[in-house]
Write the structure tokens for this entry.
Amino acid sequence: MRQVSILLDYLTIDELVELIDEPNRSICKRILTDHRALFEKARGSTHNHQTWEGGYIDHVTDGMNYARHLYTFDEAFGRPLPFSLSDALLVFFLHDLEKPWRILVNERGQVSNRDDLATKEEFERFRQDKLVEYGLALTPIQQNGFKYVEGEYKDYSSKRRVMNELAAFCHKVDNWSARGWYDYPKVEDDEWTGAHRFRST
């Protein structure tokens, strides 16, 4: 195993997008620019993780930071990773793309899904439509990661592997962010130096 030095710096969403390879970097920057106000207001989920206003961009930023460092750690073992850090950051940046349009908050503060965005199939269709809208064409490896980042769901099979390695990597990042670090980043005094919620700055 090669020696690895992990720098625990915490990057902003803009700095993380800069680590994505072209041409996808420019497309992701355009998505972020076009919808930044919506992304910075949206919740990370209806109930389970990063449920505060701005939680969506906090979940994506926190997860991309975690993916960046986890990739370095996993790579240090010397076992092949058949995907790049750029692939992982791209998939995680895009993986919940429907949420800013899906999650609604009424005047009483009650949170729900939009009526026409209520099933996994509708979520996936919305995300795929956004990729088409922005001309973002994923490779087959990236497409598998994008489709299965939240697990194999109804496609699970005991006779073949459905998720590829990229999907599995992004799934562990997403699962930990949503189930382990569901209330991170903290408003203040986050244990990860430099981490903070967007709306606390």
